[in-house]
Every structure is written in C-alpha cells, then in structure tokens.
C-alpha cells in the first residue's frame, strides 16, 4: 500500500480508502461487510469512510460493530464520517452549530468510538453563516470528538471563505475537501481544487472513481440484475447510464478497455490508478460489494507506475474531456 499525507497535515493515510456508501448496512450483509473491511485492513488500508446519512445511520453501526469485533489498535486506522442529514426534523439537517455537535455525538454512539479522525461537512449550508460553521467544527475538535474537519462537495469559493473566517477569528480551518473524481468528472479537481489547495493548506480526497459502477465495464451491455443501477432508489443512475450521453460514455470506455487490456489490468483498476496519478490526491475512496471486488480494487495500486504522462495523454485522446 502507498501512503500519503492528508493534505498538509502529518497524518499518513492509505492511497486507497474503504467507503461504506450504498454497501454497508444496505446492499450487503454484515458478515460480508466484515470480510471486506478485514481484507482491506490486512492489505494496508487504514481509511474507513462513512456518514450519518448512509443507510439511515446503519452504515456507521455496521462499521462500528466491525471495529469493536476486530479490536484493531485504534491508532492504526482512520475513521471519517460526515454530518448534514441527521434526521427528519428541521434542526437535524444542515450545519448549524447545534446539528454539528449533536450529529457528531450521534455518529460516535453508532460507531462506538470516543472520537473520529476526520468529520466532514457533507455539503455546504446556504442557511448557516460561515462563522457559525467554522466555530461549530472548531468546538468539536477542541472537545476531543474529532481530530480534523473537512468539507465535502464545497465550491472553491466556499472553502476559501472558511479559511478566511478561520484566520480572522483564530479558529481551525478545514483540512481536506472530498470531491467526486473519475474519467467523467474531472474539472473541479484538476483545475479549481488544485488552485485552491495551492493557496490554502486544504488537501484533496476523492470518491466514486468508478462513477457508481459506470466505469466498471459491467454496463456495456445493459443493466445487470443486482447491480447498483438495478437497486431501489438508484433509478437516477440507471437513467444516467441509458441516456444518450451515458451510451457515448460507455462507447469511449470500450476504447479505454483496450488500454487496460494492454497493461494487463481491468478497466476498474486502470480507473482507480488514474485517479491516484495526482500526488495531491491523498486517498481514493472505493466501495465493494464482494470479497472479489475489494481484492480487485486494492490491486489498482500496482498499476500506478504505469500511468505515465504518455498514457494519460492517450486516455485524454479517447475521453475527449480534459479540462
């Protein structure tokens, strides 16, 4: 496993992290989730990412039970969670100081932990003043319930505003931004965030390297039964894949598949290694619904040296979407 600093902090995180969205507490059973987490940990993964909203809190419960059962040293792994959608009541949604504090408290109860390593604001809150948000996360850290805080799906201007507020009031700024990044979602990470991170101490962590499975190659001939696009609540993904744009993307992926075949890896492995080619990308979060899938994803790290500038240019020529 390759390890990188989380932004400009001294914390070393695995270049591949395990995400729990969709899978833990939802798509897969608890036993399979435990096997996947164990395989990831034994192969060097030290990042486990979840959120209060995943499976209505069930993902945190499943992950917490796994960590309690395995009894790995707490200092040997990094747990990340996110707050924003905590419940149905108006006061249980958003980034008010009340929900930041209570959301983290609820996550810790479900995770059975005394603290999380990183807590993220799961999206920006237009109804909350930035000073309140930064003060809320600063309070969480000062109380020992989290070590760092970060942003997820924030715009560059919002990240800059958070840094300005932290500097003005001597508060703690965000450490890292979590953004979607893959063959078809590139511009924010490759242009906007690289610029922001150059001006601040904010790092980058990315998720959905396979675009919800779109880049796995399994949708080239339609929607397989029991795939993510076939799940209840994921009709949006099915519509995206079967749209005109989606069909064009699948056609281009067939050309990228030729490149992965030449390298001797799968399309998924090439896609994950491609996301890691930026050293400023601290960690790529991957999901897995089977033991075979987590093994396949973890082997992506072996193909990172193959992602040369020449190969990246070749992929850009096929995708035709470089920023």
* CATH topology call: TIM Barrel
Task: Summarize the main sheet.
Answer: 8 strands, parallel, barrel
- Architecture, according to CATH? Alpha-Beta Barrel
Overall outline? globular
- List the helices and strands in order: EEEHHEHEHEHEHEHEHHHEHH
Domain count: 1
Structural class: alpha/beta
Low-confidence region ranges: none
The strands making up the biggest β-sheet line up spatially as 3-4-5-6-7-8-9-10
User: What's the N-to-C terminus distance?
Assistant: 30 Å
Write out the CATH superfamily name: NADP-dependent oxidoreductase domain
Please work out how many helical segments DSSP would assign.
Answer: 12
How much of the sequence lies in strands comes to 5-15%
Mean pLDDT: 93
Strand runs, count:
10
Walk me through what this model shows.
By secondary structure, this protein is an alpha/beta fold. It has a single domain (3-216, 275-307), classed as TIM Barrel (Alpha-Beta Barrel), CATH 3.20.20. It is 44% helix and 15% strand. The protein has helices spanning 23-27, 30-42, 58-70, 97-111, 130-142, 156-169, 187-199, 235-242, 244-263, 267-275, 291-298, 309-319; strands spanning 3-5, 12-14, 16-19, 47-49, 78-83, 116-121, 146-152, 176-180, 203-207, 281-286. The protein has an 8-stranded parallel beta barrel with strand order 3-4-5-6-7-8-9-10, surrounded by 4 helices. The chain has a two-stranded antiparallel ribbon with strand order 1-2. β7 (146-152), α6 and β8 (176-180) form a beta-alpha-beta unit. The chain is globular, with a radius of gyration of 19 Å.
